Amino acid sequence: xxxxxxxxxxxxTHESHPNIVKRLKRAEGHLRSVIDMLESGRSCLDIxxxxxxxxxxxxxxxxxxxxxxxxxxxxxxIGPVAPGDxxxxxxxREIARYx
Length: 99
Hints:
The protein is mostly helical. It is 68% helix and 0% strand.
């Protein structure tokens, strides 16, 4: 359940969201396949490879969401940033890759 601090009264949608949804739906289907593989006794190597693929897809969706947030929401909150002052935002965006 979402805490009150994270509930937003307005719709919070960005241009990247439909692609993120599409990526997560593919990962969801892929995860179902992995479950089927486990239930049917497939090799651990095959299962591990497929789990890795699911994990990467979810990680990429998360990164895209965070980068989009940094590009839009953070910039909206602080206002226009001069190109010379953008280094701190770019560095923050870069370090978010390690989340």
